[in-house]
């Protein structure tokens, strides 16, 4: 099997002035700030070395001399760290002009991002999808001040929404996380210094790549990625490392699978428009608490409105964007949303015949849960499925999850079947995960 990191170089973008860090970086560049006894640079180099990458280029500017000394200490016969210093501030995109000798893919990371990611899997996916650039993405607790992307079913980026977002925006909580894979063709398209002295990698260069029709892919992960570019987020990164969260993310984790209608949002029959979506009281706060406890949250929802022809995939995407927007306002996020578009019964006017079938994903079957287990690190023995119907209960049992029912309508069913019941999601989560000492925000970048 070919090593996906063979011949790949790594690039650390570390030329910024660190204005968000105030006095913390007056004498020390961000990339040399310490976390768990090592500088951010050392942590990043450790990730590259472990992945089998042997050459790293640091694009420096502010306090470049200190970075050069650190790079020299990190280099040896089998691992070379080179520093290239920009003559003027060129931004996170403009500085990539210094990679004029790039002859293969490069992993690019911002110097204020702490990460613990399977770089081999990232590179394998990038190569298989023949992307010009792949952006690592994830949900976070503050999508309102993050660069967000839209993706299609093949994970191709279809739109970029730079921060700040217009009031009333309805957007998916998929954030560019400061880690990318780029090809030489991406570098070749960067305008000259005379045309554009300073460029942002995301807002300028990825936007331009999309406009040119180049293949921009998103690689969504639940691995540890953390922008520590502000004093608050720097403190969160220190706490996360002290509590072992990055290492924990490499192992199967407790996951809350949750139904949508009647559990997260008010049941209105067949929900067909985003304006109909109303989160139930306490839901956003409950999910924010699970985020703080580093418990994954995965939505699994039957959506027969697609098979009935009453809603299309674009409309469902808008509904889920509304769900993620409402959660994001409260500093909460779900890790993934899976839906079943099928329905077994045919014979309705306007239905979509291709979706009228007995599938493996419609609850109480386990297809959505199986997909999540494949995509994420899920410890089924420690996980639950919270819903409000017998389909949810049986799906949990079929998948080896602990079933939990919520809502007044489900009380009699819970008693009859002998399963746990709570009036709502908020009280269920508080009882199921009572740890009084939350971990720091796991995905604040």
Automatic annotation (TrEMBL):
Q: Which UniProt keywords apply?
A: Carbohydrate metabolism, Cytoplasm, Hydrolase, Metal-binding
GO terms (molecular function) for this protein are: metal ion binding; phosphatase activity
Location comes to: Cytoplasm
Name a single GO cellular component: cytoplasm
Name the InterPro entries on file: HAD-like_sf, HAD-SF_hydro_IIIA, HAD_sf, Heptose_bisP_phosphatase, Histidinol-phos, NTP_transferase_dom, Nucleotide-diphossugar_trans
| Sequence ranges assigned to domain Nucleotidyl transferase in this UniProt record | 10-242
So what family is this one in? Belongs to the GmhB family.
Q: What is this protein called?
A: D,D-heptose 1,7-bisphosphate phosphatase
Q: Which organism is it from?
A: Enhygromyxa salina
Q: What is the lineage of its organism?
A: Bacteria, Pseudomonadati, Myxococcota, Polyangia, Nannocystales
């Amino acid at each position: 099997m070919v090593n996906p990191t063979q011949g790949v170089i790594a690039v650390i973008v570390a030329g910024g002035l660190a204005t968000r860090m105030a006095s913390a970086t007056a004498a020390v560049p961000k990339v040399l700030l310490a976390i768990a006894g090592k500088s951010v640079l050392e942590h990043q180099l450790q990730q590259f070395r472990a992945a089998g990458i042997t050459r790293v280029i640091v694009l420096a500017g502010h306090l470049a001399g200190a970075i050069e000394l650190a790079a020299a200490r990190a280099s040896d016969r089998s691992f070379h760290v080179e520093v290239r210093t920009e003559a003027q501030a060129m931004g996170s995109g403009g500085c990539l002009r210094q990679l004029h000798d790039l002859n293969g893919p490069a992993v690019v990371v911002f110097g204020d991002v702490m990460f613990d990611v399977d770089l081999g899997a990232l590179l394998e996916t990038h190569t298989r999808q023949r992307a010009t650039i792949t952006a690592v993405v994830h949900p976070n607790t503050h999508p309102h001040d993050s660069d967000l992307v839209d993706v299609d079913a093949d994970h191709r980026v279809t739109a970029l929404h730079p921060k700040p977002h217009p009031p009333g925006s309805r957007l998916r909580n998929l954030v560019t996380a400061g880690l990318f894979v780029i090809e030489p063709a991406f570098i070749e398209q960067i305008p000259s210094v005379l045309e554009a002295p300073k460029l942002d990698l995301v807002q300028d260069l990825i936007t331009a790549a999309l406009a040119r029709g180049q293949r921009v892919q998103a690689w969504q992960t639940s691995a540890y990625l953390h922008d520590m570019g502000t004093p608050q987020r720097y403190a969160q990164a220190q706490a996360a490392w002290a509590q072992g969260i990055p290492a924990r993310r490499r192992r199967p984790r407790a996951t809350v699978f949750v139904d949508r209608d009647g559990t997260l949002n008010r049941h209105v029959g067949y929900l067909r428009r985003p304006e109909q979506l109303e989160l139930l009281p306490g839901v956003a706060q409950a999910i924010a608490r699970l985020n703080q406890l580093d418990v994954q949250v995965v939505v699994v929802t039957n959506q027969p409105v697609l098979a009935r022809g009453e809603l299309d995939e674009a409309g469902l995407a808008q509904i889920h964007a509304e769900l993620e927007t409402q959660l994001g306002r409260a500093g909460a996020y779900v890790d993934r949303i899976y839906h079943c578009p099928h329905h077994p019964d045919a014979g309705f006017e306007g239905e979509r015949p291709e979706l009228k079938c007995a599938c493996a994903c419609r609850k109480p079957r386990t297809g959505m849960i199986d997909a999540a287990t494949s995509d994420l690190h899920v410890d089924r023995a420690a996980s639950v499925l919270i819903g409000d119907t017998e389909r949810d209960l049986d799906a949990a049992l079929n998948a080896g999850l602990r079933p939990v029912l919520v809502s007044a309508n489900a009380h009699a069913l819970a008693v009859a079947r002998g399963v746990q019941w709570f009036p709502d999601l908020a009280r269920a989560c508080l009882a199921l995960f009572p740890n009084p000492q939350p971990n720091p925000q796991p995905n604040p970048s």
